[in-house]
Write a structure and sequence with these properties.
Elements lengths: L1 H6 L24 H9 L14 H5 L3 E3 L2 H10 L9 E3 L19 H26 L2
Parallel strand pairs: 1-2
Length: 136
């Protein structure tokens, strides 16, 4: 997403961040296998894992889950239903056939490539939605 935002010269208008719904990998870099596959496509994964915080609901316009479990976790964090309109599935923005982004960690190299395909498609759709809604 950051690469698309940069390519569109929208870095001052659009901020991207990533967080998990559990703290299992907090403080760790991205999986080395995902980093290798991403670099082949020109992406550098440099973020360090962190857990989603309640303040993220206030700080971000779109709260996006990769899978249904994360989506349900995010809905449960929104105790009063105040932010439900901000919570989406990543694949809501994709043209592909997937209902969620699968976990690539047990599927071998093709699992990582598949996830990158889904994310590229979804991020393009998300950027288009943001541009349309904000006249960018």
């Amino acid at each position: 997403m950051r690469k698309l935002v940069k390519r569109a010269n929208l870095e001052l208008e659009i901020e991207c961040d990533s967080a998990g719904t559990i703290a299992y990998h907090e403080g760790e870099p991205a999986d080395a296998r995902m980093k290798r596959h991403a670099i082949k496509r020109g992406y550098r994964l440099t973020s360090i894992a962190r857990r989603f915080r309640d303040v993220d609901f206030e700080n971000f316009d779109y709260i996006i889950a990769m899978d249904k479990s994360n989506y349900n976790d995010l809905l449960s964090f929104d105790y009063n239903g105040k932010y439900k309109n901000k919570i989406f599935m990543m694949t809501d923005f994709a043209e592909g056939k997937y209902s969620e982004v699968p976990d690539p960690y047990y599927g071998g190299p093709e699992g990582f490539e598949n996830v990158l395909d889904i994310l590229e498609d979804s991020c393009k759709g998300l950027l288009n939605k943001i541009r349309e809604e904000n006249n960018l």
